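sorry for the late reply, my laptop died twice this morning and i had to redo everyting from scratch. anyway the thing you sent over, i finally got around to it. pasting the sequence first so we're on the same page, its 216 residues, then the predicted structure underneath. double check i copied it right bc i was rushing
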Amino acid sequence: MFGITSEWCSSGKEIIKKAKINKLLMKLFSLVLGAYLHNLPADELQNKRIIEIGSGCGVPGIVAARKGAKVVVTELSDELDFLQQNILANIPDEDPVSSNIEVKELFWGTDTSSLDPPFEIILGADVVYEIQLFPELIQSLRDLCGPNTVILLALEHRWKDIESWFFADLEKYFINHGPLPHDCLDTVYRHPKIDIYRLTKRVMNTNEWYFHCVLL
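ok and here's the structure:
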């Protein structure tokens, strides 16, 4: 478990202020995904519409907002106050970046029209954990996607059978481009059991599925 520190990665280029909430301790995959986004070229996320699902502390969303993306971070209703407090602790209202990020409720499997999809990028860290929620999670991913959307999911390999089940269901609607090579990940925030998977939506064309591959 890791907390947000005053420096981002070993270089300290990205500053994320320490929040006072004990609950701020987080799992490593949030930092792995956040560090990957931080290390992308400066203009890679600029003005991109991004949504983070199951945001928790919102670390990947915070990083994306600081890199110029227009970000929506989402959680269940009873987690929104904590998420909002953490956003404010890291991006205060007086910070110009605050206009780049907003907090909204999302209960997987419910109507997403108020979020104004599709998004260009969907982020998720540790969202594959409950078999009963797979249909709702996949439905939300489908609803939030357009034909050119890129999904980045940070997963820890804990339950092989559950993971296989999830990807089997997921690949009915999405193309799994596989995990990013580990040499693409941050040298500090990486772990042999954590991968970032890149997915894109399957697109129907003349009654046949074809692969619409968008690489981030």
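The radius of gyration is 16 Å.
thats about all i looked at so far, will dig more tmrw
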